[in-house]
Amino acid sequence: MTLVLEAAVLGVLTGGVYALMASGLxxxxxxxxxxxxxHGALVVLGAYLSFAASRSLGMDPFVTLVITMxxxxxxxxxxQSVFIRPLKTDREALSVLVTYALALGIEGLLGxxxxxxxxxxxxxxxxxxxxxxxxxxxxxxxxxxxxxLAILGVMFLVLYHTTFGASIRATMLNRxxxxxxxxxxxxxxxxAFGIGMATAAAGGVVFGITTxxxxxxxxxxxxxxxxxxxLGGLGSLRGAIVAALxxxxxxxxxxxxxxxxxxxxxxxxxxxxxxxxxxxxxYGVRVRERI
Amino acid sequence: xxxxxxxxxxxxxxxxxxxxxxxxxxTAPAAPxxxxxxxxxxxxxxxxxKALIQGYDLWAQDENAKGGLxxxxxxxxxxxxxxxxxxxxxxxxxxxxLDKVALVFGPFSSxxxxxxSTVVARYNYAFPEPAGGGPHVFDRGLTNxxxxxxxxxEDNLVSYAQWxxxxxxxxxxxxxxYATQDDPFTQPQVDKAKSLLxxxxxxxxxxxxxxxxxxxxTPIALQVANSKADAVILGTQLPDAVxxxxxxxxxxxxxxxxxxxxxxxxGADYSGKLGANTExxxxxxxxxxxxxxxxxxxxxxAFIAKYGGTSADISADAAEAYSVGQVVDEAATKAGSxxxxxxxxxxxxxxxxxxxGPMSFDATGKPQGGVGVYIEQWQGGKAIFVYPASVxxxxxxxxxxxxx
Lengths: 291, 404
Prior knowledge:
Distance between the termini of chain A: 53 Å
Distance between the termini of chain B: 96 Å
Shape of chain B: globular
Strand content of chain B: 15-25%
Helix content of chain B: 25-40%
CATH architecture of chain A: Orthogonal Bundle
Structural class of chain A: mainly alpha
Oligomer: heterodimer
Number of strands of chain A: 2
Number of domains of chain B: 2
């Protein structure tokens, strides 16, 4: 029983980190209607930027976010302008190709600068833990979860309590209508992409402390992140958080109660059942399009 | 009649000249050749792929410096397989049919070697390979494979099991926990160790196989820690090797002995992530920088000269790749040819000297009668041989120290 409880706690804590990584992906889809299959590579890029800053400046990995989040935000503005904005027709299909190419480009560049060797961010708390009852909780997961709460909290504040947030939500609801009422959707899209990349940097730092990674680590990541946002509902921030928690808790409990072999299977059973009854995902909006 | 006499005279003079070695025209240098390899430069095996390239390149450089392979200057051609079982097949197909390489060397892992060897066999190429030693590599009736490591993969943990069972009964672990990837490299060796230890009276406290795609190893590591086993035997690659050790540190779980199939043999790539906590962790190893095997000292110094760092930074993968080249060089010299059919025939007999020790192959390409796989243990920031006593640089640290 202790082990199940331990797995559930671990699932919630790591689920928070995945929620952080998936939040940027779902926001980008919501605003721009593009499937950013390069998001895993952006998380890995964030982890490498923190790794470089931490190694060269001797900074704590979490403190490196002061540098990496703004850098990734600006990079997001540039990438959106150069690669995504020119896509005027058939955006959803073309965006998959463009962002996949982006992911391969990032992987290649990271391989050139950092080699293919596995690296990992180091901090005093990466192996430190404290007891709760019969089990021990690791500081790094708690810190990661708190970071997730802080960043997602700020994102909710921006989205629901600022004029710019209203522009983002309007664009998410109906891009054409938002344009008609005078919202600069290109600017909103660029900023949303930048925010998505900044959250990827934040997710990347926790990923980089808890996991040994190399430039190729994005393949496993993106498949998990995509399933999270499909379960949560494409474009729903709340959905991404709930789905990430469901995924990690169900997988971790299955791994300890039944077998790690069945962990992903159980999650996919949940995913299929949800999609059978709610094809738009847990919090997604049903869209009817004329074809 | 006169013409026939003339021909006989010319032939005779030719024979005399040949017998005396008297040719006045210089021999044309042998044509340069390309050796093709599919290497994982991206994907799960990219770290190991990089080490393979280092080993192959260093061998080619050494070989060219002494005149080439039977006089043929060597160019290595690498193609990325992205750690994919489909891509590796396409790569070897292209290397042989489009690039028309003279020879091919193997990729990383049994997972990629198995599909690759089938297509390579179709073209009757020899397939010396450094890292595909799972049982299924050898049970498909192919005769072109030569696995250049001291023992077949399933025997990798035999030395470790023998060492544990050789301990006095009151010191021997009472229980063991096993966790392994469902990978053809890791699982067979863990399963064999389990059967040997169970037969020796060591109780199994936990056994779990997890998918190779697993990214979150913590729940499995928690279960291993929860089993409170005295011995922990893990079938890992580098990322899970590090993740397991970190979770054990976090949980303050201190077994008497830990061995991981891969990870601790990766030099600084491993120790850089665990620091002083590498102390006491073991790994089966056929090669170490300090070994006195044939040409090993030269390999180590040449490696450091070419790539920098220290001997602790050299991955065993690089030594295994270098050994592939050594075996091919000796076989080519013995056969007097780099023809693939002749190399295949030659490699099935005789013993070949490598930086991993002497090696020979049975009909399926499985290494035979070699030195076996040793146990390496991290002690004082360095991985050294600790078993068997004949090669040990120090005694095994047992029980392992508690985490720092």
